[in-house]
């Protein structure tokens, strides 16, 4: 309970966001939209970490540091992924995952 | 309903609605804008939990950095007016089943689990000096090693991104 807001509410919001991200990851075909789904998944995990930290262990800061490191890893991952996407676009002139069959057979 | 509950409801509604729009919108630039709303609402949730430093990081790094990077790459790789083709039902139905079952099972588990209810969180803000000291401390609850590792990771990612995106001279 945090000033009237129970822990469950945060966890349920994070869960819904996570599975919406999973749905986008499975359905989308464009590489950039898949990257956006991954950002959604990472963000939902951050909400859970922060809520657990504040509500169950409010005298410590472990959840906050995990969140900071997850944000740093997400930034590194996004920059490298976008560099790879631009490279693929330059070679194949599209970024559709189903049309990338250069290495098939 | 207290003010905190009201603010939580507003942020949660923004997060859920706009994350669904992010994965279903067929215009890719709009999807990126909806993702920006989701990230800003997440920052608002951190403010609600009194993690001010974390909320500032969220706004500058995610909303200011990653979304701008994504929008730039969208502008470099596709037309603004272009509409993505709608996914086929053959893909939508398994994805909906997988995510729906996962969400139902996880929410049911959360609702059944007995979290210690008597813990009442303090609403103090975290002093930024405490954060800085534990980031460079090598004692218990110190984070000097992950801090150094993450700095090497960021350096490697930067070098890798530059080399990958560089034009080759053939």
In short:
The complex is a heterodimer of chains A (105) and B (170). With 105 residues, chain A is mainly alpha-helical. Chain A is built from three helices and no strands.
Description:
The complex is a heterodimer of chains A (105) and B (170). Chain A contains three helices and no strands. By secondary structure, chain A is an all-alpha fold. Chain A has a single domain (7-96), classed as Helix Hairpins (Orthogonal Bundle), CATH 1.10.287. In chain A, helix 1 (7-27) packs antiparallel against helix 2 (31-56) and helix 2 (31-56) packs antiparallel against helix 3 (62-92). The interface between A and B is large, with 70 and 84 residues.
CATH domain topology of the largest domain in chain B: Four Helix Bundle (Hemerythrin (Met), subunit A)
Shape of chain B: globular
- Describe the oligomeric state of these chains in a short phrase: heterodimer
Total discrete domains of chain A: 1
Q: How far is it from the N-terminal to the C-terminal residue of chain B, by CA?
A: 66 Å
Q: Major β-sheet of chain B, in short? A: none
Q: Which second-level CATH architecture of chain A applies? A: Orthogonal Bundle
What is the percentage of strand-forming residues of chain B?
under 5%
- The whole-angstrom Rg of chain A is 18 Å
Poorly predicted ranges of chain A: none
**Class from secondary-structure proportions of chain A:** mainly alpha
Number of continuous helical runs of chain A: 3
Q: What distance lies between the first and last C-alpha atoms of chain A, to the nearest angstrom? A: 56 Å
């Amino acid at each position: 309970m945090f000033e009237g807001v129970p822990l469950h509410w945060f966890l349920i919001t994070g869960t819904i966001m996570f599975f919406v991200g999973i749905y986008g990851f499975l359905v989308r075909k464009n590489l950039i939209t898949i990257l956006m789904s991954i950002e959604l998944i990472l963000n939902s995990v951050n909400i859970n970490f922060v809520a657990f930290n504040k509500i169950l262990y409010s005298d410590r800061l472990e959840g906050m540091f995990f969140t900071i490191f997850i944000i740093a890893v997400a930034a590194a991952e996004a920059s490298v992924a976008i560099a790879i996407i631009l490279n693929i676009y330059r070679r194949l002139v599209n970024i559709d995952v189903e049309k990338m069959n250069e290495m098939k057979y | 309903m207290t003010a905190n509950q009201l603010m939580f409801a507003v942020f949660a509604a923004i997060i859920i609605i706009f994350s669904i729009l992010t994965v279903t919108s067929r215009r890719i630039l709009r999807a990126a804008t909806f993702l920006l709303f989701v990230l800003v609402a997440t920052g608002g949730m951190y403010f609600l939990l009194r993690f001010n430093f974390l909320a500032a990081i969220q706004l500058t790094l995610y909303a200011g950095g990653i979304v701008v990077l994504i929008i730039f790459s969208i502008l470099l790789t596709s037309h603004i007016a272009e509409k993505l083709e709608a996914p086929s039902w053959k893909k939508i139905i398994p994805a909906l089943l997988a995510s729906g079952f996962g969400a139902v099972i996880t929410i049911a588990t959360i609702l059944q689990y007995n979290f210690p209810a008597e813990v009442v969180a303090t609403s103090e803000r975290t002093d930024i000096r405490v954060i800085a000291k534990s980031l460079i401390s090598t004692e218990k609850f110190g984070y000097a090693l992950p801090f150094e590792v993450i700095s090497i990771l960021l350096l490697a990612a930067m070098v890798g991104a530059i080399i990958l995106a560089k034009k080759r001279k053939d």
